[in-house]
């Protein structure tokens, strides 16, 4: 039996370029891995079977569309072996929340099955398989902080000092990632800027944001937080503005929608502030629940193997 821990992400910068002819958008996507995460356990099985527990478990598909099941099949096909595994997801990452929970489970299943099947697949090969599963999956393997170019899959790790404290406000109900990208395109057309890659420049990382990360400066990072999908998420879910305002009123240094939303992310100065902002957000009635957490943390990694040996839990 192998258990893998995998982080959720927040995009501290999400620069979105124009729509490409393949239906994706070029991004300058600064991913940041947080301790809020899922655990995926792999055991010897017959075929691929899947179970899931956690508060949002009823929202997780347990068929072949699940990214963990797809990852197991993809890795087996890559090595020309039968995909025999029982997968279990202990889910803490909000579903359809803009925190890449499905992508995290896909990355975790790659790592868990690789260990269960004794394949020792080199990381560059795992990253290629991850990119086939989805734009966000390679980052869940890597963790830390990284700039994702292309559709987000071309990763460059970024230097970061110390740690940052975060609060995530979880909404009732998710938002569909393709629907939010479509709304972003629609808003751009309505504003007259055009929405295709011919109309808009390729986005790039903000030097002030990169410096704030490298310096470990939460005040500077808060000032540089930016998400080009935020207007689209707010257009589809206007009530998110109340949640962002409630967190800022409770003392957060900065706030933004996490990726395609609807989870809202709040950067705070320390662990005590995180606790206070999480409590204020939960009491505000503007979200379902709020979690205090921190980062950056490692990408998908084995925490327990068959003999019960444990690795680092962060
Ligand atoms: C927006 C981001 C930010 O990190 O994540 P979420 O906030 O949803 O977690 C990602 O770009 C989501 O990545 P992921 O959820 O893996 O998307 P994919 O499965 O690759 O693509 C789903 C759909 O989203 C749109 N898409 C995705 C990535 C991209 N660079 N441009 C796009 O237009 C496309 O419509 C695509 O068909
Ligand atoms: N392992 C998984 N966990 C959650 N959702 C999954 C998983 N595999 C596939 N999905 C599908 O992916 C959709 C997006 O979920 P998720 O990855 O949690 O959100 P987001 O793309 O907003 O970060 C879900 O609505 C669900 O249908």
From TrEMBL:
Reactions listed under catalytic activity: 4-CDP-2-C-methyl-D-erythritol + ATP = 4-CDP-2-C-methyl-D-erythritol 2-phosphate + ADP + H(+)
Membrane-spanning residues: none
Alphabetized SUPFAM superfamilies for the sequence: GHMP Kinase, C-terminal domain, Ribosomal protein S5 domain 2-like
Protein name as it appears in the record: 4-diphosphocytidyl-2-C-methyl-D-erythritol kinase
Catalytic residues in the record: 9, 136
Record's keyword annotation contains ATP-binding: yes
Gene: ispE
Domain GHMP kinase N-terminal per the UniProt entry, residue ranges: 66-144
EC number: 2.7.1.148
Coiled coil: none
Membership in a protein family: Belongs to the GHMP kinase family. IspE subfamily.
Residues that bind ATP: 94-104
Function text: Catalyzes the phosphorylation of the position 2 hydroxy group of 4-diphosphocytidyl-2C-methyl-D-erythritol.
GO molecular function, one term: 4-(cytidine 5'-diphospho)-2-C-methyl-D-erythritol kinase activity
Record's keyword terms, sorted: ATP-binding, Isoprene biosynthesis, Kinase, Nucleotide-binding, Transferase
Domain GHMP kinase C-terminal: 210-284
InterPro entries with a match to the protein in the record: GHMP_kinase_C_dom, GHMP_kinase_C_sf, GHMP_kinase_N_dom, IspE, Ribosomal_Su5_D2-typ_SF, Ribsml_uS5_D2-typ_fold_subgr
Biological process, per Gene Ontology: isopentenyl diphosphate biosynthetic process, methylerythritol 4-phosphate pathway; terpenoid biosynthetic process
Pathway field: Isoprenoid biosynthesis; isopentenyl diphosphate biosynthesis via DXP pathway; isopentenyl diphosphate from 1-deoxy-D-xylulose 5-phosphate: step 3/6
Keyword hit for Electron transport: no
PANTHER family: 4-DIPHOSPHOCYTIDYL-2-C-METHYL-D-ERYTHRITOL KINASE, CHLOROPLASTIC
């Amino acid at each position: 039996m192998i258990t893998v821990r995998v982080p959720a992400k927040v995009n501290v910068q999400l620069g979105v370029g124009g729509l490409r002819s393949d239906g994706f958008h070029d991004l300058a996507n600064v991913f940041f891995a947080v301790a809020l995460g899922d655990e995926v356990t792999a055991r010897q099985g017959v075929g691929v079977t899947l179970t899931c527990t956690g508060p949002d478990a009823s929202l997780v598909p347990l068929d072949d569309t699940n990214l963990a099941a797809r990852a197991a099949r993809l890795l087996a096909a890559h090595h020309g072996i039968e995909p025999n595994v029982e997968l279990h997801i202990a889910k803490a990452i909000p579903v359809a929340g803009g925190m890449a929970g499905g992508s995290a489970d896909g990355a975790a299943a790659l790592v868990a099955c690789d260990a269960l099947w004794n394949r020792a697949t080199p990381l560059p090969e795992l990253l290629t398989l991850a990119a086939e599963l989805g734009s966000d999956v390679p980052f869940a393997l890597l963790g830390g902080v990284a700039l994702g170019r292309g559709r987000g899959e071309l990763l460059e790790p970024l230097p970061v000092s110390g740690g940052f404290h975060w609060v995530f406000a979880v909404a009732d109900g998710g938002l569909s990632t393709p629907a939010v990208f479509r709304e972003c395109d629609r808003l751009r057309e309505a504003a007259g800027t055009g929405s295709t890659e011919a109309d808009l420049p390729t986005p790039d990382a903000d030097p002030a944001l990169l410096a704030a990360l490298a310096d470990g400066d939460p005040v500077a990072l808060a000032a540089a937080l930016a998400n080009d999908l935020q207007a689209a998420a707010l257009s589809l879910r206007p009530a998110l503005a109340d949640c962002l305002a409630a967190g800022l009123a409770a003392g957060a240094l900065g706030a933004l929608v996490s990726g395609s939303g609807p989870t809202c992310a709040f950067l705070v100065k320390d662990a005590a502030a995180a606790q206070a902002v999480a409590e204020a957000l939960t009491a505000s009635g503007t979200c379902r629940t709020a979690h205090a957490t921190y980062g950056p943390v490692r990408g998908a990694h084995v925490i327990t193997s068959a003999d019960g040996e444990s690795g680092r839990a962060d």
